[in-house]
Amino acid sequence: MKLYTVLSNEKEIVTVSGKSGALYPLNALNVNVSDMNELIAEWDNIREILTMNLSEINANESKYLSIALQDFKLLAPIPRPKQDVACLGVNYHDHKKEAAAGIDFVKTAETIYFAKRVNRANDPGGLIPNYDFVDSLDYEAELGVIIGKDAFHVTPEEARSYIFGYTVINDVSARNVQKRHQQWYLGKSLDGYTPMGPCIVTLDEIGDPHDLDIRCYVNDELRQNSNTKYMITTVEEAISELSQGMTLQSGTVIATGTPAGVAMGMNPPIWLQSGDTVRCEIENIGILENTVQ
Prior knowledge:
This protein is α+β, with helices and mostly antiparallel strands. It folds into two domains: 2-75, no CATH class; 85-292, Fumarylacetoacetate hydrolase, domain 2. The chain has eight helices and 17 strands. The strands form three sheets. Strands 1, 2, 3, 4, 5, 6, 9, 10, 12 and 15 form a ten-stranded mixed β-sheet that branches. A five-stranded mixed β-sheet has the order 7-17-16-13-14, with no helix packed on it. The protein has a two-stranded antiparallel sheet with strand order 8-11. The protein starts with a strand and ends with a strand.
């Protein structure tokens, strides 16, 4: 199923999509949660009744459209992640090649992990801030993985059972800040630099996460065009490696890296400018679109 967080009547509400695309508040399906993090944590207790009631709606949706939300603003599915977003750097073969020209150590490094501080995830349709100290603003379309239950010392074979679902992430990056500090935390953690959405698609509806088309457009120009099968470190391997010495709490978000086509890899680079629209798309999940302020 597809799960969304929306703002309606000044309240953040978790909703689920019916087969027509209409969004139904979970409390109308006899599920009461305060936010998406609570839904994920309580999923084992909630899933059966939510699935049953959603099936009833889908069987005769015209009868139930009156309880669907009519007026709302789409928010990031997890507006406030519990922990920093865990990220994989240069995790596609083609992006590793283009990044190596400007970042020497990626040629020989094993999987690169870093974090994004997320005060609040940016919403679908939200503005990406254009800070005056950033002169090289970049985009990165990425598959986001949502952990469903606390994971510690998990094997790659066990990892799939710890996944709740998937989303789309734009790992917005200030390249000049990233390079100046010789690490990536600050250049990727500025407020507004983690657009996420439009929804979370639960594990059962994705199938193989390593066979999804992934694209990014800037002002309708195709910049990134790849498939998740070209990841170097798989989703399951990343969950396992990250969990060997630290707990990934339920609701933890992992950004799995981006394919080639970012501005940094262009010659010359074409950085994002005010008014540019960035559209990230991942097959079976949806479209995440944001405009630079």
